[in-house]
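Summary: Need help interpreting a holo structure output

Steps to reproduce:
1. Submit the protein chain below together with the SMILES for pyridoxal-5'-phosphate.
2. Request a joint structure prediction with the ligand placed.
3. Inspect the structure token block that comes back.

Expected: a single structure record containing both the chain and the bound molecule.
Actual: see attached output.

Input attached:
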Amino acid sequence: MRTREQATECDPHSDASAPVSNEDPIRAALASVRREIGQAAAEARRSAEAVTLVAVSKTQPVAQLEAALAAGQRIFGENRVQEAAVKWPALRARYPDVELHLIGPLQTNKVRDAVALFDVIETVDRPKLAAALAAEMAASGRRPRCYLEVNTGEEDQKAGVAPADLEALLGVCRDQHHLPITGLMAIPPQDEDPALHFALLADMARRHALPEISMGMSGDFPLAVRFGATHVRVGTAIFGARSVDEG
Ligand SMILES: *Cc1c(COP(=O)(O)O)cnc(C)c1O
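--- attached output ---
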């Protein structure tokens, strides 16, 4: 278990050179989350390396990000383009192997900044956004991977494409805009058992031959791993409670 845990996208060299301290709560929390991922993967007879931990650093100050980076974490999720544009460029200059995921809604007027900043855009959910992303990718030459966000609970207030419209949107993204769509993402309704939603998302990804499945948060990531998540998005279990939670 120990070797698997270390293999979960942490660089063993940076890990070894960083100071080890029991008093570093972020390092300890990261180790514990990686251990839980490893256990859930083993239970599902999956390889722990097949699961990527996306550390959700929204609202967290740079000092917290530095602690996670020092502990070997390299893949992070932010939900606001503007906030990420303030926090990340200087850190990325020091840690060029960082991979940034956009996990919050994207407005078309922020597409230029999003394409410049993010390596993965997890929240593509409508044709207009797909068109704007394609235009900006052509103009900039940058091609961040994209996931389609699926509103598996069909909640009115929530972003994401309805399951019934997924196939059509995928067609628009791939055939019309040639976007690099590599996965699906979902945020299950808060008051429902997430298992059904995880199973549904994994099934849709399989049917459309999309290799990446982003699901599971602090409260339910081991369950998501058992249902086939390739990316879990974990914030509070790593960084502690957010003072401002703008979801
Ligand atoms: C905030 C957020 C998370 C992380 O939630 P935690 O409960 O803090 O782990 C995951 N996914 C999305 C889309 C989020 O906005």
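--- end attachment ---

Reviewer comment: The first strand starts at residue 52 and ends at 56. Residues 25-43 form the longest helix (19 residues).
Status: needs-info
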